[in-house]
Amino acid sequence: MADNGGSYRKERVDRGIKARSDSVYAIASFRDLSYLLLPRFLPLLVAFILPLIVGDYWGKVLVYAAVFGILALSWDFLASCGLFSLGQALFFGIGAYLAGAFNYYLHWPIYATIPAASVGGALLCTALLAPVMRLRGVYFAMITLVLPMLFSRLIVATKVIGGSHGITNLTPLGSRWFTIYFALLALFVCLFVFRRIMAQDYGLVLSAIRDDDRAVMSAAINIFWRKVQALFIASGVGCFAGALMCHNYQFVGPSAFALDYSLMPLAATALGGPGSFVGAVLGSAVLVPLSEALRAFGGLRIAFYCLILMACIIVLPEGIFHYMARKYHRFERMVKV
Amino acid sequence: MLSLLIYGLIQSVILVLYAYGFSLVYGISGIANFAHGGIYILGGFMTWCFMNALGLPYFLSAIFSVILMGLLGFGLYWGLLLRIRGIVLSEVVVTFVAGIAILEILAWKGLYGFYYNLPVFVKGGISLGDVAIDYQRLFALGSGIALAGLLWAFVHHTRMGLSFRGIAQDERTALSLGIESDWVGALSLAIGSSLAAVAAILVLPLGVLEANIGYDVLIYAVTVAIVGGLESGFGMIAASLIIGFGQIAVARYIGSSWMIIVPLGAIVLILAIRPSGLFGSFKELEERI
Prior knowledge:
The complex is a heterodimer of chains A (337) and B (289).
Chain A: E1 3-4, E2 8-14, H1 30-53, H2 56-79, H3 88-105, H4 110-129, H5 139-158, E3 167-168, H6 176-199, H7 201-211, H8 213-218, H9 223-249, E4 251-252, H10 259-272, H11 278-293, H12 300-315, H13 320-328, E5 330-336
Antiparallel strand pairs in A: 1-2, 2-5, 3-4
Helix pairs in contact in A: 1-6, 2-6, 2-9, 2-10, 2-11, 3-4, 3-5, 3-9, 3-10, 4-9, 6-7, 10-11, 10-12
Chain B: H1 2-29, H2 36-52, H3 58-80, H4 88-108, E1 125-128, E2 131-134, H5 135-157, H6 159-169, H7 171-176, H8 181-203, H9 213-228, H10 233-253, H11 261-273
Antiparallel strand pairs in B: 1-2
Helix pairs in contact in B: 1-5, 1-8, 1-9, 1-10, 2-3, 2-4, 2-8, 2-9, 3-8, 5-6, 9-10, 9-11, 10-11
């Protein structure tokens, strides 16, 4: 409690709108209603109006922010069942390469390549990583860290699927408006679906696996199978982000496995606050424009993310979103002691 | 055939050198030190700086940089990791990110191309039969083996080594016997970082000093650890031999650009057959249902 001159103290009172639980509310007025709805709909509204205001360049940045947001959501989903990935670039790169290859070699149109790359990539990643699901500890982190690096070196060294030059001349995603709104829509659909999944029994099991896997096993639930399902969902979403981005760039190369795609989702989630999905989106909405503004620093940009990430994890492990939500749900006032 | 044998052995020893520090730290304190690659390159760069900026003799600057990297490892534990000890996610992320920060700052300072390189300790070479081999490779081979022997003796026949093993086996019991786990953890990270610097000084003269090599070192260290099984020193050596000989054989018979397929193939195979590594133990969760 902050002490103000010895005679006042700061009192914190929860707003009396919650009834019984976090998701049941007692609404008595329009004020209560707006108190609940505004923080949910205002950001959505801003996100959909923003493309109309900003110029061409920042419109592109908005697409990047949405794609990184999707990757961060996929990271957060994996983390919410206890799997810490250090290589979202694996999902991103596999999705991008699959979509690129389908488009370039088989001449599939966009509405076929993106779903095919998402599902096919998810199957591939799940098959590759499923054996690790049986292990505990840092194994998953280590393997996801190594695989994208090895894949990009493999492609550069052996010159398969385009080699270090990559595949160019892919079909573009569509007009500027379509690209922006499609990316934003995908981001928000992912956000709401993930939040809905985690609010249900299915999500309860996943978060229980994170908290105590043996307890879940003793409830006669096959945790291996559940983790594989979570991995399938998350890697599908990651591959979707990759497929989207490769059509947006009209290019796919070994840079799709670059460290940026592993590090940025991690940094965004750590900054925004893990576990809530909104934090992941918020974090990438802050970090991606920030990193565009930091382009002048060139190579130092990644070092800069690293410092943010370290500072967040050590100093502010809670994240922006949880901090803001806590403040929003409370009155603070000075009262006489 | 003889050259395959010799160069395969040398490649394996190089891999052991890469992986030794990483395995040691994980085996003792359970921290996956993903900053290993960054510390490796920083060790090489520091040696270069001592030699070219301060004009110290090579031998002295090598020793200084090894000590400095040891201090850096100690500082990494004491300054950062101690605050988040026990939260696996945070430990992993912090070491990973610290390593990348080191590498990216070095790359930004211009650590690429052929400008920076370390001289070899001993010039010249000999030929065994019809295989030409330079002394630096032989030197790396000899010192790698000597180092492994020395460390084994240290861990098994000194008091500090005993406390290291105690912490590795059971942290709480070791604590109750008066072994301080934070102290041991910090020391293990210091020794692991020094080992990375030693590896850098032995291996880097064979090539150029580039920031990007740090990522390769990290990849190989982690790959060897995954394939061999994390806590097992024997597994590390076995995995290094498999991958080292595999790489040289692939370079010989298929083409040197395909060398990278060996670690990837080894990981995929080991995941399919024995996910906890060749000699890894007790990490598989019981499957009962």
